Each structure stands twice: as structure tokens, then as C-alpha cells.
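Troubleshooting log. The previous structure file for this entry was overwritten by mistake, so regenerating from the original sequence record. Sequence copied from the archived sheet and checked twice against the printout by T.R.
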Amino acid sequence: MGFENEWSKIYNPKRIPPLSRLPEMAGHAVQINTQYKRFLQSDVTDIEDILPGTGAVYNPGVTAPVAVYKDEHGKAHKFSALCPHLKGVVCWNGVEKSWDCPVHGSRFGKDGVGIMGPAKGNLPPIDEAAQALLKQSSAA
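Regenerated output below.
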């Protein structure tokens, strides 16, 4: 357009941050990446340990972690525990009764339906009970 924007250097994606910011940036990278340790962890040793009306991540160790919600009748509903945004492993939030991703803050209802982004999708259902719960919630 014939003139230089005074903000162009600040928003240039090729900019190099000052060296004084490197420890802060490294600390942030470590904090985010330690969330992925949940790939190897399980909140419970068996699905039977989950109380009705609650959820937990179950990781049998040989497959991907599973987000299991038990309804008030004790029926288990299994979803993928991997957030569709950047594949962080979700955590059960007992106060809100939701699945929360610790990586970027996406939230999902107990039925796997996306509540808040940045994830743009739902938690994929793994079993027929989860598919039915997701379908029921989507129809409401």
C-alpha cells in the first residue's frame, strides 16, 4: 500500500524473541508437553472402580486411553480420551461433570459433546452406549 505499518515487526511470524524470554518460553513448552504423560496413566485400575454419576480415564496400557462415564444407573459409556484438538488426554471434572483437556482448555460434556473450544468436535464414542448417549444429547 506504499507505507510501512509500525506494528509489522511485532506481528512478523519470523521474528526472533529476545534471549531474555527463552527461559519463560522453555518453561511454557515443558508445562504443555508434560500433559502428554497422561497417555501412560490411568485414573482407575478397573472400570468397576468408577462410581455412578462420575467419570475417569481408564488406560489398559496396550491401547489408547478411554474416557469412561458411568450414568446414575451404573451403565458405562466409553469415549476416546484424546481431545480432537491436539490429542491431549482429557481429565474428569467432578464439579462440572465434564471432560476437560489440560493442554488448551477444551471442555466436553459427560456425553462427549464439545462445550468449549478450541476443539471443534466431540469426543469420539467407542461403544454403542456412548454412541446412544451422544445421539440423545445431540437431538435435545
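The beta strands are 55-58, 66-70, 76-80, 91-93, 98-100, 107-109, 114-116. Archived copy saved in two places this time.
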